[in-house]
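Possible regression after last week's pipeline update?

I re-ran a chain I had predicted before the update to compare outputs. Posting the input and the new output here so someone can diff against the archived version. Not blocking, just want to make sure nothing changed silently.
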Amino acid sequence: MQAVWQDIKYGIRMLVKTPGLTAVALGSLALGITLSTVVFSLADAIWLRPMPFRDPGRVVRISALSGQGSGGGLSYPDYLELQAQVRSLSGLTVVEPREETLFGEEYSQNLVADVVSRNFFSVLGVRPHAGRFFHENDDSSMKNVPSVVLSHALWQHRFGGDPNLVGKAIVLSGRDVIVLGIASQDFTGVRRLIPTDLWCPVETWGHLEERATRDRQSNAVFGRLRSGSTVQQAQAEAEAVFQRLDLRDRATGSPQRALVVPETAFHGEYAAYGLLMMAIVGVVLVIACVNLCGLLLARAETRHREMAVRAALGAGRGRLIRQLLIESLLLSLIGLACSIIPARWLIGLLPAFLPSRVLDFGARLDVRVMTFAAVVSLATVLLIGLAPAVHASRPNLVPALKADVSSCRPRRKYLGLNALVVGQLALALVLVSMASLLLKSLVKCYTEDLGFERKDILLADLSPHGNEEYCREFYRQLLERVRALPGVTRASLAGCVPLSPYGTCGRRKIFLPPGHAQARPDGWTFQHNVVEPDYFKTMGIRILYGRAFQEQDGRSAPKVALVNEAMAKRFWPGEDPLGKQIWIDDSSTEPTQIIGVVQDGKYRQIDTQEGAEPYLYLPYSQIRWYGMILLVEAKGDPAMWIGPVRKEIRALSDTIDIYPMSTIKQYVRFQMVGRDLMTKLSAVLALVALGLASVGLYGVISYAVSRRTQEIGIRIALGAGRSDVLKSVLLRGCLLAFLGGGIGLVVALAIAQALRSALYAVKPMDPVPIGLSFLVLLAVALLASYLPARRAARIDPMVALRYE
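New output (post-update):
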């Protein structure tokens, strides 16, 4: 231990003795560890961290697979059948996400509510922070009382952590409900990225007819395996139930198959993003370590005589390796210490770049993340210290003791350094190429034809309390008052707007006339919207043929509808859809006539790889609909109109729920949150990798120039021109860049195939972004080589001849 302590003190003196090298080494290492830690905290939050359930490995989810292979929800009757017949599960619970409103004088808060069966918390094994949970053994009097359980975050942020809130009533969506309990801080529901604000028991929430129908396939079903049961047994039993019920997808009519998945695989869709982020930052960390390894190898050359003297005095090879590894360990520990504060700052800064609800899943610098950072730091000791230590522990004693430096460094001494630099440049090109592909894909998304004009329209989501007649009169007066505001060019109403983060208006069942080639007894189910006549002009949606809704299309007028081009081509290919009849919701009701066809658009997602889906528009005047979105097109910044519009709303009702106002452009940006984050992260890491690689190249070229100082001086003294020296050094740098770029190009083309699912409207083999990446690498390499080349060309022959 005394010898180890001596090695530590000597290592500290050596680091202090070379402050420039130590600063570069610590900067590279701290940068790599910081980025690794931040990205791991993200990946851990969205993918790796287990859900806060009791024994989460025994919790499974049952979903429905359609003919296209996509998972979907189940209806409430389907859940009851599974609960009665799947014996391998000790408990089965159902979850349906909905929205509820908590009234506020300035703005109401839109909450994410999960309507669940009463055994929800007992099946998952979750304990309350305060109060109690509802339970399947509650008596009938308790089951008839509308009650909720609040999340810990909602309790803290909206109610200030009031310890007396349990047992009191709050107003949700116009009704009084009793707060039974508060969930624990670590339990935010069954979804990672969108936490739940409150939980409601299914018996006192929603309409009985909604739960009784099999058309509402919006429920997620969770279960807990019995002791001794397996996922395969649950899968077989669920398959039998699906076959007996002949469950089918309501949109396509294709048969559905059961899929039973353990909790650990619930969020497999995020695994690709987590793996990609970790792979990218891992490459950056490797580049940083390789950069450091090159610096230490070059430093080992300058300490060749020191190692020879120590060996001549009796130090064994193991002692020399230990000394150098301890120096590398000191670098790693100091680098870890230097990375903690920046990592914590960056993790805390992440919510500023994303909507708060997206990052409420809890990316944080906890014990798991710190353990990862420590493991990474210790692993770098082997990556950055072992090769230089082994190399330096084998000194050629006689030449080294005679200070015959040229004999100690044969020509092959640069092969290791050159290989490291080539590897760095290759990895940097891979990252720059991937970032270029993701950037082009993001640009394609932002320039995609959305089916409507990219206007900055103000959106006000409203939920008046009252019957249908009251709501219709409220909206009529509101449109009149808003349209009368100076500067407002148009105003309209819609049940939903495209790309809304709150979803669409839902689905409607459509029946075709008897005798139609695609008529089905159970009908077709498609997305729809409920709109006011001026909606299409306000949004800039083109009507291809036919007409828009008009004021005369009232409740007593014949029922009318507009369809998009995709629906027209699907049901009436080669025909004129105008005047065709369909039935909405029920084939025995009054038929609805198609009066127009509008252009296809993006309704739920911008970067979907599938073609346009059929879509239906219905007039608000003929449809029973309460909550609507007010669309205001006005001159100037939409933020200027928030106050006037809110004033007009409050003038009509001081109890209406008004949600924070937004714009269409904000909805578009919200759609791109995940892709935008991935692209920015990739671009930053690619630039960091490129910078580290250029520093590595600069270090190798500078080291080679310093070692060849005497040689260069002799060449200049014998008549070599300074331009010849400049070209010679630049050629060396360009050669390394071409080698690294060539290897990286092959690897990038192979890895680009794995990015296919993350790219939109961009081919993985797209030559433009990959070619530009190659040119950028060459330009950076040329710049990194020019500085030492210029210094070599200015060497004074007289000084060089006395060198060493």
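Follow-up from reviewer: compared with the archived run. The mean pLDDT is 84. Marking as no regression found.
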